[in-house]
Specification:
InterPro entries: TSNAXIP1_N. This is Translin-associated factor X-interacting protein 1 N-terminal domain-containing protein. With 697 residues, the chain is mainly α. 61% of the residues lie in helices and 3% in strands. α13 packs antiparallel against α14.
């Protein structure tokens, strides 16, 4: 296509004459723009893949230029003129040129871009600029600005391509690095997991070794304790043997002294015999002299009557008055054996009284001794009567055994329990006989009450076990170790005698480790709570009485675990005392039988529930491994008392296992604990109290 390159000088409208109407119309048509309402909206049309669309339509003669292939949508702009106006020749020529060149270029280069076909539009724009030289500068500025903008965009596109390539390379590098990091992280995680599994296996093996070592340590401790107890017993026996030897030596010394006394008495008796021998000789001489006198009297009776005869001389002979005895006083006569026996009895009585005075009070040897004839006669063996007893069969048994009735009564000394673990009160460590205080039932109950009150006041002593605290309390009450052992043995023996009283029986059970000691403070708190509920009841009559049914409703509220039999027993006793109203002060007095019965029932219920739980856990436990799962223990408690909720079960198990409630609630079903430790905690430290009666239907 060729254009006329001659320069056309178009005059300005004000320079042209009015007769040149064609030039005026042409210039007006070329320069002026249509009105705002005559502007046609822009339209988009697509181009087929085989080439360009038709240039114009037959109806209106307006043609549109298809700029791109069919692979991308193309924008089409309508002419500025309206449908009624016609196009300028230059516009038609330019449009035809653009269509032709564009179609030809697209047919040769189907995959071209807008930048590849831009030269066609530049050539058409150059022709347009040449045709209108008066707009050359403005159009050149516009073209240059568009060219510079396109160049900048090209540069930016190049830079963006470079950046995109760099990003792609970086992305690939990063992807490779990420894959390497993932692989290394996977390897590290697998290594760490393997190390953790190995550490867990090592921990489990160490736990097993620790358990075995603890078991061996416990056995060694038990053996050491047994040896220590045997050593202590041997020491005590050695002390007792030494004391027995000392006593035996003292007894031997006393026997030697008695032997010396007997020897002295023997010497004295020999001296008496010697004196008696002399007396017998003198008496024989006296008797011979008397016989001689009798013979002389018989032969010279006649001469005796004469004054100054021989009879006067014989009568004047000196005869000792001591030996002037009759025939009845002759020691050789048979009747004088009684005199010797009486004399020997008097000597024995005097020696007995002297020995009694020496034992009772020193210096009584100078006291006046009673007459042996006034002393009570000593019964002979055949004169003794048999022991009188209440039943003949018991008397016969006592006679067969040779035991007197007085021997059955309590003596002044109590046999010590010693240090052997099998003894019940061995923790007192009493190895010597102790004085018997003969405590009454009231004294025993009072001491037990004081002990539990002191135990309840000592809040900081909750970590101390019952036996050490009992020894501390005994020492505080007695102010010395010896009297503390004496008081403790008397108190425990009194509790054994009065085991029917609940306080005495509970103290013995707590010291033996059969029930937890917390049952006593719990019982005391429940009694105080019952008294408070009665005092604050709205049904109170005159401040001291309550209706019968209201009172037992409060008892049921405070003691929900009471069985029907126990409640009937309480109601029967209360009904015997009062029929319609209950006197609170009398019924809930600490010394009343109702309170004693209430405590006895509470202790028995706790003991039975504890025994049922312990035996149930023992049945479900693993006897070989000496362990039980926490879940099975909770199921056993819940089966014994179905009314107990999960919170209470978790609290009891947490206290028994010495863990937190959260740990018990979140633990697995396979978690196990040591069986003996758990049962020991249930028996000695955890208060197991029912939430519902045992005979609940």
């Amino acid at each position: 296509m060729s254009f006329n390159k001659e320069k056309v000088n178009v005059p300005f409208p004000w320079e042209r004459p009015y007769s040149d109407s064609k030039l005026l119309q042409r210039s007006t048509a070329l320069v002026s723009l249509p009105a705002r309402g005559q502007l046609a909206p822009l339209q988009r049309r697509s181009v087929s893949a085989g080439g360009l669309a038709a240039c114009t339509k037959a109806d209106d003669g307006r043609g549109q230029v298809a700029l791109w292939p069919a692979k991308a949508p193309r924008k089409k702009v309508n002419a500025l003129t309206t449908r009624s106006t016609s196009k300028a020749p230059l516009a038609l020529q330019l449009e035809g040129f653009i269509r032709k060149e564009h179609r030809q270029y697209l047919s040769e280069h189907p995959q071209c871009t807008r930048a590849d076909t831009l030269h066609i539009f530049r050539e058409a724009f150059g022709a347009f600029v040449q045709h209108f030289p008066e707009y050359t500068s403005v159009l050149h500025v516009i073209r240059d600005e568009y060219d510079s903008t396109i160049e900048e965009m090209k540069e930016q596109v190049k830079q963006m391509r470079v950046i995109d390539l760099e990003n792609k390379s970086d992305r690939s590098v990063h992807a490779m690095e990420l894959m390497q990091l993932k692989e290394s992280l996977t390897a590290v995680i697998s290594n760490q997991q393997a190390q953790i599994e190995a550490s867990q296996g090592l921990v489990f093996s160490l736990r097993d070794q620790l358990a075995v070592a603890e078991h061996a340590n416990n056995l060694l401790k038990f053996e050491l304790e047994r040896n220590m107890r045997e050593y202590d017993d041997a020491k005590d026996k050695a002390k007792l043997v030494s004391q027995a030897m000392i006593e035996e030596s003292a007894r031997t010394a006393s026997i030697l002294e008695a032997l010396k006394k007997k020897e002295k008495e023997n010497d004295l008796m020999n001296a008496r015999v010697h004196v008696l021998t002399k007396s017998v000789a003198e008496m024989e001489d006296c008797l011979l002299h008397r016989a001689r006198q009798d013979m002389e009297r018989a032969t010279g009776s006649e001469d005796a009557t004469a004054p100054g005869g021989a009879g006067a001389r014989h009568s004047a002979a000196p005869v000792p008055s001591t030996y002037a005895l009759t025939a009845d006083d002759d020691p050789r006569a048979p009747g004088n054996d009684e005199y010797v026996a009486r004399l020997q009895a008097r000597i024995d009585a005097l020696e007995f009284e002297l020995e009694s005075c020496n034992r009772t009070a020193p210096g009584c040897e100078d006291a006046a001794l009673p007459d042996p004839e006034e002393a009570p006669p000593v019964l002979k063996k055949d004169e003794r009567q048999p022991v009188e007893t209440q039943f003949p069969i018991i008397g016969a048994w006592l006679r067969d055994e040779g035991v007197a009735e007085e021997d059955l009564e309590e003596g002044e000394r109590l046999l010590p329990p010693g240090l052997w673990p099998s003894e019940e009160f061995a923790f007192l460590k009493a190895t010597q006989p102790l004085r018997n205080r003969h405590l009454s039932r009231r004294d025993v109950v009072s001491l037990v009450t004081r002990f539990w009150e002191e135990r309840e006041r000592q809040v900081n002593s909750s970590g101390i076990q019952t036996q050490p605290f009992f020894l501390e309390w005994l020492t505080k009450e007695s102010a010395s170790a010896y009297t503390a052992k004496e008081l403790g043995l008397n108190l425990l023996m009194g509790c054994s005698r009065h085991v029917d009283h609940p306080d005495c029986r509970t103290l013995l059970q707590a010291l033996r480790g059969f029930i937890p000691e917390a049952v006593v403070p719990a019982s005391r708190r429940l009694l105080r709570h019952l008294r408070k509920c009665c005092d604050t009841s709205t049904d109170l009559i005159n401040g001291t009485h309550l209706p019968f049914e209201v009172f037992f409703d409060l008892v049921r509220v405070v003691y929900p675990e009471k069985s029907a039999a126990n409640m009937l027993q309480l109601r029967f006793f209360a009904f015997r005392e009062c029929r319609e109203t209950v006197h609170i002060g009398t019924m809930l007095d600490p010394a009343s039988y109702f309170v004693v019965l209430l405590k006895q029932q509470f202790y028995r219920e706790v003991e039975q529930f504890t025994l049922a739980v312990v035996e149930g856990i023992r049945e479900t436990a693993d006897a070989v491994g000496n362990s039980v799962t926490i879940a099975n223990a909770i199921k056993v408690i819940q089966s014994v008392d179905p009314a107990m909720n999960q919170a209470m079960l978790h609290a009891l198990m947490a206290e028994a296992c010495q863990r937190s409630v959260v740990d018990i609630a979140t633990t697995s079903d396979s978690t196990t604990v040591r069986l003996e430790v758990l049962l020991n905690r249930f028996r000695t430290a955890v208060l197991l109290r029912r939430c519902s009666p045992v005979d609940l239907p």
